[in-house]
Structure formats: structure tokens, C-alpha cells
Design goal:
About 30% of the residues lie in helices and about 30% in strands. By secondary structure, the protein is α+β, with helices and mostly antiparallel strands.
Length: about 350
Amino acid sequence: MRRQLATLMMAIALPLVGTATANAQQEWLLNANASHFYMQTAKNNTTIETQRFTGLDGSVRRNGDATLKIDLISVKSNIDVRDVRMRYLLFETFKFPQAEITAKLDMQKLQDLTSQIRIAYPLKFKLSLHGVEREFEAPVTVTRITDQSVSVTSAEPIIVTAEDFNLTAGIAKLSEAVGGIPIVAATSISFDLVFETGEKIPAIEAARAETQRRVRAEETATISTEACETRFSVISTTQAIYFKIGSAELDHSSEPLLNSVADIANRCPSARVEVTGHTDSVGGREANRSLSTNRASAVVGYLVQHGVPATRIESTGYGDTRPIAANDSEEHRAKNRRIEFRVLPK
């Protein structure tokens, strides 16, 4: 019993927990339905916005190895356009759909949970986010609910900075999306997680399977024209579609976003989509128009190859005639070299 509770404590001490698939008899599993994980951001130095991640799955093995995976696509603020911006502009979930936390828990330090209801535990963990891994240490409070259930709660907010995870450009895009309002380049994380073991494992595994089924259904369900418009509007500002220099040949690094575009278009079966190409002002006007037209056509060709009916998608090239920034620096010219998507009126 003493050893079982110590193991449970190890499982619970993990603050940002993820998925694991080891033998259930050797693990404490995260009860995702009873757990909460929040992120707070600040804009204009005064407005605090709270987002919740609903896609959590985690476990802790008896040897203290703990893993947590957070589905970044599951970010929820109850405002669709805000969630879409967080996914595409900040986290770039088309390339980095998950965050992962790993930790090695100290069994000896968790022994006190066998004789106490609640203990403080200094948690050291690694966070992998946006292709970058960093080490953190944060205090958590571990509470014994029953012999087969424990909760782990953040004792104070965990600060994650944009610079540490190459998210600075994403913060700038979010700021542009809301009219240039400054956004603090850091976020605070808080959580309340419940881990369980023993006879509770089958129910957790059944709930996990049901969640996976529901998520798959949501990911393939038809979405409204309005939702489609929102997604295409945001995707048009990602600056994540690339071509060979001076060419209409798509770079392979464009594929993750274009695959997402194809998925959205296929989930909006009644919508007709226009793909428009744009260039900077370098070069002749006719050459730029031709290049933009060919690039837009290349994108249409890719989408058609990935299931979007050719009858529902068309392309236009505008060259350098519709800039969104002055062509006075490389940074601004890069913004003008873009592909945009628009739902056409019926």
C-alpha cells in the first residue's frame, strides 16, 4: 500500500501531462475528464485572456518516468476566430500539433504522501513545444484523494516565454491580426490534474477511446461556410507557403499548411474557393503578374491532387498591385509575397 501511494504521487506530480501506452498495471493514468489545464495571455497590457486545452493524456510509470502530451489543436477560448489564430499563427499546429512534457520523478521525496493528505513537491521537467525543448522547475501540490486517486495542482503560475520556443514571430502575427494591439510575449500556465490507478484504469481507458473517436469525428465533420471563411482568412496571414526563388515551384516545406487547407476545403463542400497570388514590387509588373498567376495555379494543382474538386476552386494572380505593406524593406516585401484564400460568394 505504501509503495502504491508513492508511485501514485510520482504520477500526479507531473504538471503538464501527456500520453503513455504502457501496461496499465504499471501506471497511473490521467483522468482527462476530471483534469484542467489553462493558459493565460495578456494584450494591451491590461486584457487577460484565458484558454483551456481539452486534449490531455498522461501517465506515470512505477519507475518515475512521467509523460504528458497536450493537443494544441484543442485550445479553447469559446471564441472561434481566437482559437483558429492561436492554432495557425502562434502554435503552427499544422507543423507542431502537440506539446510534450517529460519528467523523472523522485520516489523518495514522494513517500510523505503515504502518511499525509497533501504535500509540496518541486517538479523538474522538460517541455517540448514548437520544435524546441527547455528545462523547467515548478512547485506543485499533490493531494491524496483516495488510495487510487491523487490530484496535482500548480502551486503558482508557470511562465513560458515566446523567445524560448521560437514563438516571437507568432506573437507578432497575432498582434497584427488584432490591429496592432501589443501582446505580451509570455504566457502563464496553471493546471489541476487527477491521476488514478487500480480498478479505475478500465474506465479511464474507455473514456480515452471514446475521446479519440469523438475527436476523429470532429476532425472530419462538415464545417459551416462562416467557419471556413474564418480559417481561410487566418491561414492567408501565416506566411507559411513557400516557392523556389523566382519560380512557381512549391517548396516541400509548404505541404503541412497546404494539407490543412485541403482538409478545410473538403469539409466545406458547398463553398467555392479562390486562391490569389501576390508578389513584391521587385521586377517588372507583367513578370510579377505572371509569376503570381503561376504560383496561385500551383497551389490549386496541389489542392486538387489532395481531393479538392477542381470545379470548386479557382485562381487569380495580382502581381504587385495589392500590397499589404510598403515595399521598402525585405521584411515588408516578404509580407507582400503571399498566397491568400477566400470563399467566393454564391
